[in-house]
Structure formats: C-alpha cells, structure tokens
Amino acid sequence: MSLEVRNSPIHGKGVFTTSFFLKHSVICKVNIVREITEQHPLNPEKGELHHHCQWYPDGSQALLGEPHCYMNHPCTPNSFYYTVNKVSCFMAMRDIKEGE
User: Fold this and answer.
1) 38-87 pLDDT tens trace
2) Hey, which residues does 17 pair with through a beta bridge?
3) Which CATH class is domain 3-92?
C-alpha cells in the first residue's frame, strides 16, 4: 500500500502517501472492520471513535480500520470516499504528491 500513518502537524495522526497519485485515480480500497449496530456499538475504550466511521445513505455505519480511519479529515481534502454497494475506495480529488 502506498500509504502510511504518521503524526500529523495538524492534529493527532494522519495518513501520508508514499507515492504520487493522479487526479481521479483510486488510492486504495477501504478496510472496513465491522458494522456498528445497537448490539455492537463503538467501544471508545478500544479507540473506536465516531470520526473513525463511515455513514451510508441507508443510515448504517461502519468502523474503518487503519490507515483509513485517519484519512481525509481536513477542511480542504485531497481525496474523497466513494462507495458502491458498501464497497468503498478513496479516490484522488486532485494530483497528490508523495508525502501529502
């Protein structure tokens, strides 16, 4: 994978590229850990946080694994989360340089 988790100069942890991505290219398929339900809610004691989740149009919620749970939280994102039939990828919104 061309991504790595590092300490972010903005806040906490972030995901940084280890290679160049062209605009509109698929960066990666998303690692879904599990669906969040009433019977299986988030467990903050295990580091499961709401901002590590993805919400779907049907109202369901999924917990993202590393490194994906740390992606795309800035005000000016460089990628977007694309989902079809609950299969999700991150795609580049613009060219992304190594190290971003």
Assistant:
1) 999 999 999 899 888 988 888 999 999 988 888 866 778 899 888 887 78
2) 3
3) mainly beta
